[in-house]
Amino acid sequence: MVLLDYVPIFIMVSLAGIFGLVLSKASEIFGPKKPNPEKLSTYESGMQPIRTARERFSVKFYLVAMLFILFDVEIVFLYPWAAVVRELRLFGFIEMLIFVAVLLVGYVYILKKGALRWD
Amino acid sequence: MDFVDIIFVVFALIVVVSAFIVVFSRSIIRSAFSLLFTFFGVAGLYVLLNADFLAVTQVLIYVGGILILILFGVMLTTNVVSVEIKTGTLQTVPAAVIVAVLSGTIAGIFWFTEWHTAPAREGPTTKALGTLFMTDYLLPFEIASILLLVALIGAAMIARHERGTEGGR
Amino acid sequence: MIPLDYYLILSALLFTFGVIGVVIRRNVIIVFMSIELMLNSVNLTLVGYSAYLGDPTGQMLVFFVIAVAAAEAAVGLGIVIALFRLRRTVNVDEINILKW
Fold first, then answer.
1. ipTM for the complex?
2. Which of A9, A48, C46, C65 is most buried as measured by Cβ atoms within 10 A of its Cβ?
């Protein structure tokens, strides 16, 4: 039964879920709670926050996420190729070189265009 | 009821319920997080269908990529404090008609057609996929790289913040 | 073994939810999520056939769908963000500059 191979994954996922749940709830239940106004401020014995932190955030984060997802797809295409590259020899290698080279052009372009500069 | 059947029912329920929440929830954040469970449920169904590598891909790209991008889209387009995060719905009646016709048609076709099936293959699929990519479907494979290149350049140009314009920092 | 019909009907349901979302919701991003639901339902159908016909081609097609979905997410949300910057709205009814 091939489904049995997934039991470790299942155990890990459930353990991770339980771990997160238990830790967050445990600190809520067992942690001492003696709040006073000074403790409840955002930075205790620090600066007063000037404005709320919940603002629309910069588009730069979106750019990074977008670049990540496109290269993520590239990596996923690399995996099946890696499984058969020994049988395909030079032919498969050249094919993948073309694939990666095309994406490299895009990478160099956005690099030159400054999309990855942070400020 | 078999053990596999129970797993199927669980994943199918996760998919249907979370898809329902995605579409009908009033809060866009709740929709986005519900989409996470839909993607996970579909990944589980892929596992049941012996598509192991695809299940991992689903988690990697849909959950780890597209969903993050959607969440960024939510956070970039809604000012969480002032702008109301709820979204309205309308056109309920035409929607109901369209949906009834559509789902009836699809489900009817699926139900009444005799599908020819072959014994299922078990075991890892990565190798078979790699062979297909490198032999019969080589051209689509290379074109996919060009598609990604175009998307890379296009999206970077659209979303890039030009200096001096208003909004964001 | 679960009959193929079950997977097909499940994916029909998922597709229908996606259509409902596109028709009734007014927020571009929710419309976007509904499109992702539809893409997922199609993927599920393809994988279902692939498993029950014993042919990995269906699974391979899903990879292309995923690649297209990723490109679509990147460009589509880029457009949404650019539109929001321009018009301050994500409501599809208000985005009608092409209307005459």
1. 0.89
2. C46
